[in-house]
Amino acid sequence: MGFGMGRVSDKRERLIESATKLFHQAGFKDTSIADIAEDSGVPLGNVYYYFKTKEDLVAAVIEQRTENIKEEARRWDKIPDPRQRLIKLLDLQLSMKNSIAKYGCPIGSMCQELDKERPPVAREADGLMDWVLKWITRQFEEMRQKQADQYGLQLTAALQGCGVVANALKDPKIVEREIGRLKTWIKEM
Amino acid sequence: MGFGMGRVSDKRERLIESATKLFHQAGFKDTSIADIAEDSGVPLGNVYYYFKTKEDLVAAVIEQRTENIKEEARRWDKIPDPRQRLIKLLDLQLSMKNSIAKYGCPIGSMCQELDKERPPVAREADGLMDWVLKWITRQFEEMRQKQADQYGLQLTAALQGCGVVANALKDPKIVEREIGRLKTWIKEM
DNA sequence: GTCTATATGTTGATAGAC
DNA sequence: GTCTATCAACATATAGAC
Which chain B residues touch A116 with a CB distance below 8 Å? Predict the structure, then answer.
């Protein structure tokens, strides 16, 4: 081990952390295992002790992302007003406006890229998008909105869409404007 | 030449056509020059007579896509009512619902992928998105909408967003539902 | 568990005969 | 202008010493 008894190496975590960052910034295809090894400070050959394939690594990235968002949602679910829960989600997205303008929405861009390259793993990314859509829709249901399904899709698509447009135009203000509008819309419901 | 006097080879066009299709279906990175050569029936080595680099080829693909959409828009611009022009755009997108669910919006997915891989060419794809946003916004201006900018962004993002969500969930009905809603919205303006 | 060296495969791009 | 053969670079993944 090299760390003394009981002390577990954090290399696996560091690899996931670097992979998460680099996949988002440069994309899955353009990030080599060597890039991830260098960024995380783990020697190239050692990466394969933790992840047999690059696909296993991206699967771990998606799994962790999924865990993180579900955990956040569990916290939001404790807020009594569903409107306020949606505002929390919008604020989270808003806080990422700069990174979204530079690299796109982490979930949306990953779905789109993996879909074209790794159909097996893509299902897990797509599952996360599905989960988000359903969570958002549930908030409208709890508001007793008859058109909860439509509103859920509308809000999810608006979030994804402003990510794509902001990324293409490299302008965080686009995320700002669109999320501002969405917040007003939600508050007026 | 091999075709007799004056007869120009259509290889260049066929290469662009195949590249357009394959880049959309499989993505830029996962489509090799060999794939394009095979699909278009042009021998591998000959591709480089028409396009010095793969980047030149994708640039030609974007240029042609841009020409096509601008030409379509010029036709729509002859329609007196801006609402009807937007409906035309929505109908075009609707007609691609199956391909969008399978491979994503051709413009949106190309912007996102190239952005992460080929910054120089990406600008041209991004420019197309910018052009579309401005064209849509102009329609709202001609409707004398005070919030034309906001509506333009809103509609563009909604279109892109439903593409991303439909692609993730592999469900053309998502495009159908969201575009149906958008058409109603436009008509009621 | 860790790391160096390397096998193996694929790709973009070129050389050069025709 | 066309096409075959091939180079050079780079990526994933493995072998095997430590």
Answer: 25-27, 30, 103-104, 109, 113
